[in-house]
Design a protein that fits this description.
The protein is of the alpha+beta class. It is 23% helix and 48% strand. The protein contains 3 helices and 13 strands; from the N terminus they run ααβββββββαββββββ. The chain is elongated, with a radius of gyration of 30 Å.
Length: 210
């Protein structure tokens, strides 16, 4: 007569496969705990440092051409901006930086793309962009606005910056954030002005949103 041996659950627990599963679970929980701690540390550092927005100001504007011909506009403008990083322990990567000009809410130049750059702690940079628009379609009422501003003796232009940046804290670099800059330039404008480009060196602070 053959003898049948039935192993108890205690014997089954001794199988190698179950030990392997338990080891994988321990590794998984250990990895999850370490990852969570790292994220919490990064979050705490971010809260402590909490970077301030970059600061921009308009330092110089030179208008070489602003010619309206029917529903089309030809423009040539050079603009210089001062960019400052006010943070003591946070650097800024500018991955995308586009500048253009608007007049009475209408874009009068094409986007000018500046090369990416890094701005160190409390560093300032002068940025110059050449803005050009050839045959840009505009609203017919823009001609009336130009004549009215010439009569008033002043020309108001807006210079916009759109782009993406990343914060750098030590060796850690954040994800990309979109930022927008708006600068206002008020220039003398009238029939009695001397020949040559219209120039303004009156610095003005720009608004920044992130």
């Amino acid at each position: 007569m053959s003898q049948i041996t039935i192993k108890s659950p205690k014997h089954c627990a001794a199988k190698p496969g179950i030990h392997i599963k338990r080891n994988y679970r321990k590794l998984f929980f250990s990895f999850s705990a370490c990852f969570t701690i790292i994220l919490l540390l990064i979050f705490l550092i971010w809260l402590i440092l909490h970077p301030s927005k970059p600061q921009f100001s308009l330092t110089e504007v030179d208008i070489y051409q602003l010619n309206l011909s029917g529903p089309q506009l030809n423009s040539s403008i050079q603009v210089t901006l001062l960019s400052k990083n006010p943070n003591q322990k946070v650097g800024i990567f500018y991955d995308e930086f586009r500048v253009y000009a608007t007049y009475k809410g209408q874009q009068i130049t094409l986007d000018s793309l500046l090369p990416p750059f890094y701005q160190n702690h409390e560093e300032s940079n002068l940025l110059t962009a050449a803005l050009v628009g050839n045959g840009l379609p505009v609203d017919p009422s823009l001609g009336y606005e130009v004549v009215r501003d010439q009569t008033a003796g002043r020309l108001i232009l807006n210079f916009k910056v759109i782009g993406r940046l990343r914060w750098k804290v030590g060796t850690w670099v954040s994800g990309r954030y979109r930022f927008n800059v708006n600068c206002v330039s008020i220039m003398a404008f009238g029939p009695g002005l001397p020949a040559g480009p219209l120039t303004s060196r009156q610095g003005s602070q720009c608004s920044v949103t992130i």
